[in-house]
Request: fold
Amino acid sequence: MGAQSKRSLGQAIDTVIDALQGLDDAARLIAVKAACEHLNIVVVAPGAGLQAETPLDVIPPPPPPPPGTLQDKIVDIRSLRESKRPSKAIEMACVVAYYLENLAPPVERRAEIMTKDVQKYFKQADFPLPKVPGQVLVDAKASGYLDSAGRGKYKLNPVGHNLVAHSLPRAKGKK
Reply:
């Protein structure tokens, strides 16, 4: 079915059940968790501090941030770059990682940054592309801003978060 055709709740449930029917229990759990993460749905197991009448209680996503916060003002990577004014590719990589983790549209949001993200978001932000995009992530890790999150993936650590959230833009005369 295409994105334009509407399904009833019952049809949606039937589709999910049909899709999960042939999987073992572990694979079902992984599929459901991944779908919930993709849709920004928080699922709490019974006994985790909430009363549950069904096997899982579904908690709606948190409300949007209050007006005037960074999440409210920044809607794209170019605006964030203009606001933070990174001066080096390493700083820009941290800005991209911060954007992906905190400010990107929900369907793009994730904790990891990869070489393809450097290429995509540096272009979107109108920031000069480095000669070797993947090296920027390696250098940002060596500088203490990123941690390794698997092969070719990096994650903004607290130092990198603080750089973007609290130190950029840098005051004039400070390195």
